[in-house]
Amino acid sequence: MKIYNTMTRKKEEFVPIHENKVGIYVCGPTVYDYIHMGNARPMIVFDTLRRYLLYKGYDVNYVSNFTDVDDKIIKRAIEEGVTASEISERYIKEVKKDMADLNVMEATTHPKATEEIPDMIDMIQVLLDKGHAYEVNGTVYFRTRSFPGYGKLSGKNIDDLEAGHRQIKVAGEEEKEDFLDFVLWKPKKEGEPAWDSPWGPGRPGWHLECSVMSKKYIGDIIDIHAGGEDLIFPHHENEIAQSEAANEVEFARYWMHNGFLKIDGEKMSKSLGNFFTIRDIGKKYPLQVIRFFILSAHYRSPLNFSDTLVESTKASLERILTAVSRLEEISEKAKDREMTETEKETAAKFSDYVDKYEAAMEDDLNTADAISVIFEMVKLANSAIDGESAKALVQKAYSDIEKLCDVLGIITKVETEILDEEIEALIEERQEARKAKNFARADEIRDMLAAQGILLMDTREGVKWKRA
Ligand code: AMP
Ligand code: ZN
Question: Residue 458's pLDDT is what?
Fold first, then answer.
C-alpha cells in the first residue's frame, strides 16, 4: 500500500516495522463538548485505514487518546460549577456513543491523559536529565533549540519562526530561555486539577501527553501517526521533538493528515461557530450517510459540507443498499445450478472490480475511487443478475459488495428482526420529532418502521404498533 507521508511529502510504499503488525496512533479529541462533523473526519478516515489493513490481514494496534485535562475542560467546569473530571467523563461517554453510531471501531486502547501522569513525569525527567528541558518556578519547558530536527515535519525553519515572533511578546513567557520553548509541565493554578510532581503540583502539557501514551501503548517507534492537518504544527512537531529527544529513535515512520471539512469555504470549527455536532446531524440523517459522505472525498482534500451534497450522498448510499437487499432476496430463490459461460464472465468481472477497489485503497486510501468501483458493481449486479441467475453468481455479487462496503464501515445487512424496545425507542423519537415540528424526521422514522413491517396507529391513547 502507498501512503502519502507528510514527513517526506511523497507517497511511499508502506512497510511496517514488524511483519504483519501495524501500530497506529491517532490524536484524539479534547473532551469538553459534543464532537462536530469536522472532528469526526479523522475518526472515520483513520478507522477506514484500520479496517483496510485488517482486511489485508494485518494485526492492528490502534491507539487513540482522550485529552481529558485542558484549559477548555476547566473553563467549562467552572461555568457549570462542577469538577473538570465530571465534564471529561460526561463527554468521553458522549464521544464514544457518537463514534459507535458512526460505526467507528473501538480503539485497541483509548488512554486518558489523566491516567498516565506517572509516565509523563518520567519522560519529563528523562528530558531534564538529557538537557532537553529546564524548570523555572514550577514550569518545565522543552528546550526547542536543543533538538536539531525541529521543524522537519512542518517544513518550518527555526530561525524564521524566531524572527516572526520577535515583535509579539506573550505575557508569562518572559521566563523562557527562548520563545520557541514549549511547556511540558505547568504549575497548578487556584481551582485547577493538579498532580504532584518533582516540580510541584501541576499538570502536563498537551503535546507531551501523546508522546507518552503512544510510547506506552505502541512503543518508541510508531508505524503510522495520524490526525487532522492543523495538528502538524505545532502539536506533531513538538511530539517529535519530545519523543526523539527522549527515546533517541525515529518517532513515527509515516505521518498521515486529513484535510478540513469546510462549510462555505471555511474550516468547520467550534471557535468560528459554523459547526454541526454529530448528535444534531444524526437527527437529520442516518449517521451512516455522514460516514459515507466523509469517505466520498479523498482524505487529504478539503471537503465542503452542504445539505445538497449530503442529500445526494444519501440517495447514492440507498442505491447500494437497495441493490444489496435485492441480491439477498434473489439469492433465496436463485437456481442451484452451474454458472453459464456468460455468468462466469460476470463473476470474473466482479473479481476484477474487487482488484480495482483494492488498487484504489492501496493508492493512499483513495476511498473516493473505491466508492466509484462499488457503484460499478451495483450497476453490473442490477443489469446482469436476476431471479433466474445461478445461486453462486448471486452470492458472489452479494458477498463481494458487502465485504467492500464493510471495509468502508458501511453496513449493508438489513436487520431481519427489530426488537420491541428498538421499535418503542423509535416511536418515542418520532413523537419528539413531531413535537419539534421536524416532520421530515417523523416521516422518515415511520417509513423506516414500515420497511421493517411495523405499522403505526395513532390512537387516542397514544401511538400503538403492530407487526404486519
Ligand atoms: P480538537 O478537539 O479541536 O483537537 O480536534 C480533534 C481532531 O479533529 C483533530 O485531529 C483535528 O485536526 C480534527 N479537526 C477539527 N476540526 C476539523 C475540521 N473542520 N475538518 C477536519 N478535521 C478537523
Ligand atoms: Zn497528539
Answer: 81
